[in-house]
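Example for tutorial group B:
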């Protein structure tokens, strides 16, 4: 039976409201011998097929002492990932000392108020704003509401959350570098989510967007364009490998503060920007 979006969100909120300290004490005996990092995201992170691949599939060789489970699904947004129960699934799986990387944005734009609402667009805003789907009548929440509600439920289980900004589209698509302007709004939203939950001591931010943008500037026009064989969003396997290395380098440099993943970086990972 498919649960309603309201039920799923309420379940996450209820899990998040549990005193994290009591949950940690209860689950201490259930800690894994090796912690796990879960990846929650869209096709740019997910395992795909053919000539395209998400960066999450290339993260494991860059880490040591931690297991990577890629839960990213193509075509998802923070909203649809919530409504399908995927955040709830991860919240049920995590144990103390696990890490969850949350990276969305590519599918979160648009207007849910439209009669042609695609089920992915979030309500504009960064707080408690609520929209009504013009197609289904569903209550639609903001990007920050979805990812922060999920993060609270995960943190309540003793795990940590890394909010990672979405990857950029091809910044050399027009033949000149387009990475100097203001990034898409979901980059700032991911950073805000980490700041909003900073008091938990278990939320951090990685600016994956800027790391990849810096890498593309270094790679130049011809090389960057060669990584996009289908469209301006999805990279080839070679591109996904480089995007994963950019993420690992951003974690190492701790631009936005230290994340719990830093201690698991493999020595000798290459610098790509």
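The residue assignment follows.
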């Amino acid at each position: 039976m498919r649960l309603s979006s309201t039920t799923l969100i309420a379940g996450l909120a209820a899990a998040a409201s549990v005193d994290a300290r009591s949950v940690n004490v209860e689950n201490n005996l259930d800690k894994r011998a090796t912690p796990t990092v879960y990846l929650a995201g869209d096709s740019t992170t997910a395992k795909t097929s053919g000539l395209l691949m998400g960066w999450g599939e290339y993260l494991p060789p860059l880490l040591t002492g931690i297991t990577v489970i890629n839960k990213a699904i193509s075509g998802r947004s923070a909203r649809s990932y919530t409504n399908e129960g995927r955040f709830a699934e991860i919240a049920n799986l995590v144990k103390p000392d696990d890490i969850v990387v949350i990276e969305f944005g590519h599918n979160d734009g648009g207007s849910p108020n439209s009669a042609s609402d695609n089920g992915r667009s979030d309500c504009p805003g960064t707080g408690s704003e609520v929209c009504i789907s013009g197609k289904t009548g569903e209550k639609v929440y903001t990007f920050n509401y979805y990812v922060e509600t999920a993060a609270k439920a995960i943190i309540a289980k003793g795990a940590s959350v890394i909010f990672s900004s979405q990857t950029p589209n091809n910044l050399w698509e027009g033949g000149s570098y387009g990475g100097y302007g203001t990034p898409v709004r979901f980059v700032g939203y991911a950073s805000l989510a980490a700041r909003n939950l900073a008091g938990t001591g278990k939320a951090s931010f990685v600016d994956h967007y800027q790391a990849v943008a810096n890498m593309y500037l270094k790679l130049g026009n011809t090389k960057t364009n060669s990584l996009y064989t289908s469209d301006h969003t999805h990279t080839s396997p070679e591109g996904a490998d480089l995007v994963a290395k950019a993420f690992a380098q951003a974690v190492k440099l701790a631009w936005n503060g230290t994340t719990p993943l830093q201690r698991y970086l493999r020595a000798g990972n290459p610098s790509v920007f």
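The radius of gyration is 18 Å. Compare this with the pattern of hydrophobic and polar residues in the output above.
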